[in-house]
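Email to the structure team, subject: Response regulator receiver domain-containing protein model.

Hi all, the expression group asked for a predicted structure before they design truncation constructs. Nothing fancy, just the tokens so they can compare against earlier work. One-line instruction: predict Response regulator receiver domain-containing protein, return tokens.
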Amino acid sequence: MKILIVENDPNKSSVVELFLLTELDISPEEVEIRRSFQSGLEAIIQNEYDLLLLDMSLPTFDITDFDDGGETLDRGGEIILQEMEREKIEIPSIILTQYEDFGGVSLSKIDEALFTEFPGIYLGCIYYNTSQTSWEKELKLKINNL
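Reply from the structure team: attached below.
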């Protein structure tokens, strides 16, 4: 199973990757990580994946020593789903986010809207919290149901 993680937080992506490798027996060669909206979208367009794990809030570009990543897209994960629909790319997708609210809109409301807007690919939102393990159980369940 080839998985793309689009996540700008190195700690979060490392924890998620380790979870995939240890709990779901995914090999390291099957996991790819991109750090921004732009690099994530490029990877999606240029490659084939069996699963997409998306952060909701993403910098426009990869952050480097010379580039601050540009504007932060508060709902960048949602925009990636819209671009995938426009390009007719169908990858089962899960939003994995550390935020419960986006500009006054709750994560549960966004989740409902995304199920309606992307019924063929959207598998749901998972609230990621490092001090809890509920996200792991939810993610494992969603992946095992693929």
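DSSP finds five helices and nine strands in the chain. The mean pLDDT is 94. Ping us if the truncation boundaries need rechecking.
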